[in-house]
Amino acid sequence: MELPRHYLPARTCPHVGIDLYQRLLFADYGSYQNVNVSVDVVDTKEIITSWPQRGQKSIQDLNKILPTLPLFDQPLQELWRERDNILGVKNFNDTLSSIKQLLKLTRLKNTAIKKRDKKFEALKKTYKHSGESALDFSDDVTLQKMMTHYSEVSLAYNDNCLNGYNRDFYNGQLSVISNNRDKEYISYVGGPDMKEMYITTVSQEPDSCLKTPHLVCQQSAEERINQLETRSTCYDELFLVCAREKQMCELFLADMAGRTLVPQGSVRISDDCWTSISFSNYLENELLLTSSSGDVFLWDISSSSEKIVYKSSRFDCPDKWSCAYFAGHPREIVVADNTSVEIFDHRSNFQNGQELFSLSTRFITVNEKVMAAGFLDFPYHAVVTDYSLFVMDQRFGSSPVFHWSTEFKAAPQYLQIIDNVMSPGKLIFLASQQPAEVICFPIDIDGGDIPKTSLLPWKVSAIGDFSQSEHHDYVCEVNVASRKFQTSLAGLAVTKMPNENVLTVYQMDSYGDIFFQTVNFNHSQTKVNPSSELDRQSARVRINEWLRNLDKTIKSGHGEVTPDMNVHKETFGK
Q1: HEC profile for 29-45?
Q2: Which of 93, 158, 256, 324 is the most buried (most CB within 10 A)?
Q3: How confident is the model at residue 133 (pLDDT cuts 50, 70, 90)?
Q4: What is the DSSP string of 419-480?
Q5: What digits encode the pLDDT tens for the residues 441-470?
Q6: Is 134 among the domain residues?
Q7: Residue 112 forms part of a structural domain
Q8: What kind and span of H or E run contains 550?
Q9: What does the DSSP 8-state code read for residue 530?
């Protein structure tokens, strides 16, 4: 019997065309089901009531009370720089300088012409941005005309930016863990060279959605840290932190009571580089490490690392990358590269893997690649490509049981999966690096029933949305704030507090600044709880303070201010 291509209709987003800017026009409005809503004012308080429309039995949704807010009250970098640490480029000035050099060449060689064409093609595909004011300080008339025609410019594009991502930072430099005492610990990378690792505890006031950070400890690494992963232990105040560098993986025991990071060991690789790390969800002393050549190592903390799998690519791909994770058994692992996803286990001595997913023109477009993969719940797995998210059943490999068209502008690089407290299912969070976007895909998985969803995918508030909301009244430099928030995403982490119907989405930009958004679950309720006046006031104070400190940094001379930035000031986004 011929299996269907996918159970739900989905279109493939080509990510080109004039409608690119409108592709997620309604994604931020949070409408998950058809409901009737009424607003009544009683004693100066708004009471919002909603009820299902005909044919619906209940209301299930995720209530986003406030936009994404800064975790700290000021930007973490004292020397605010315009370099995007993830993609390895600078902002608009680098674009102008690079194109000027090309235009001033009297005789362009074929290679230069191709380079110019690629750059402008990439610039045309970037998200909509008003670049007119940034053209005022350009002296080259030809350049002004050309850049005015291609006014959707925000970043200078190198090889990474042509794709919108850098594979070195797969799954990001941010990780969050919560313990049984309702505490959250954030591990993140910072410092000028991305060699510093910080552990911060986050506290939350009762009946409030705002969070306050407290730095606990920090540790320096030998090389730039590309990925951080954390894992809880049987002790509340102890957890493991693994840092992936280019050729070194270092493991630490974080002791929150003693405020220390104790080294537990390291693994170095030569003539290759690490591409992913993953803790075992069964045994806390085991990790999986993968290299760009396709080698998979099982690292037992108590002993040593051992190479257990070599996965060869289906075809030659210049972008060498692989990742691995534990599946439904402590000795069953899934290995993915750009071309396919396979399952290996100890019964065959980790040889002759079973195909879970491979690139097929039935489901994907030409030149599309595997970008990420993760374990949902036996027997289901999530596989991410440039433009699609698939749910695969390992009992029937190569035939997706669910398919979304993700419609990111750039291929996703960050994948986070958490339990959905509203139903026996999962919430799949995907994020792209540039532009920085996060989208959640809910899915219900109930025993032997087929995967299904009752909620539409929804977009998480972007890191700069708070500066365009009504929750602030500080007047800031519009161009400074705009370029600050156009940086790449360096990490994504999602956590859910035990015994609470609340989850928090953390995002970190390439400067090391962390932002968060709190989301409440509503299930079979008619009351929608809006943000309280205390929450709104607290959010306003933090936003104003953060924007004020950003302005101070620029005006003090720590940041580069282009001549057109001091012409006028306005409230950003209004």
Answers
A1: HCCCCCEEEEEEEECCE
A2: 324
A3: very low
A4: EETTTTEEEEEEEETTTTEEEEEEEE--TTSPPB-SS--EEPPPTTGGGGSSS----B-HHH
A5: 988 887 667 778 767 788 888 888 887 766
A6: yes
A7: yes
A8: helix 533-555
A9: P
With CA atoms as reference, report the closest residue to 227 among 283, 286, 278.
278
Residue 471 in this model has a pLDDT that exceeds 50: yes
- Are 467 and 475 a contacting pair, CB within 8 Å? no
pLDDT of residue 6: 36
99 domain residue, yes or no: yes
Distance CA 128, CA 105 (A): 29
N residues, the chain: 574
334 forms bridges with which residues in the sheet?
325, 343
Residue ranges making up the domain that contains 107: 92-154
Spatial contact of 95 and 87, defined as CB atoms under 8 Å apart: no
Both tokens assigned to 284: 């806390």
Instruction: Say which residues have a Cβ less than 8 Å from residue 262's Cβ, sequence separation at least 6.
Output: 252, 253, 255
pLDDT recorded at residue 14: 40
pTM over 0.85: no
Q: Residue 562: name the closest of 475, 486, 477 by CA.
A: 477
pLDDT tens digit string along 354-381?
899 988 767 788 788 999 999 998 899 9
With beta carbons less than 8 A apart as the criterion, state whether 507 and 431 touch: yes
**Confidence (pLDDT) at 13:** 39
CA–CA separation, 177 vs 229, rounded Å? 10
Alpha helices in 126-226, H assignment, sequence order: 141-149, 159-163
Taking Cα atoms as reference points, which of 483, 537, 555, 572 lies closest to residue 94? 483
What's the structural domain count of the chain? 1
H or E element, residue 537: helix 533-555
Q: Are 446 and 420 in contact (CB under 8 A)?
A: no
- Check: CB of residue 53 under 8 Å from CB of residue 456: no
Across 281-346, where does the E strand assignment appear?
286-291, 295-300, 305-310, 322-326, 332-337, 340-345
Tell whether the model's pLDDT for residue 197 goes beyond 60. Answer: yes
Q: What kind and span of H or E run contains 546?
A: helix 533-555
What one-character DSSP code corresponds to residue 101? Answer: H
The amino acid sitting at 399 is: S
Give residues with Cβ within 8 angstroms of 34, minimum separation 6.
52, 53, 56
pLDDT of residue 130: 37
Indicate the residue type of 155.
L
In-domain check, residue 452: no
- Segment among 60-64, 144-148, 254-258, 506-510 with least mean pLDDT: 144-148
Residue that is written with structure tokens 């001549």 in the block: 563
CA–chain centroid gap for 246, Å, is: 20
How do residues 20-63 score in pLDDT, each as one tens digit?
A: 334 333 333 333 444 556 667 777 766 666 555 444 444 456 67
Average pLDDT over residues 349-357: 85
532 secondary structure, DSSP code: P
Contact 296, 309 (CB under 8 A): yes
Residue with tokens 């619906």: 56
pLDDT recorded at residue 571: 32
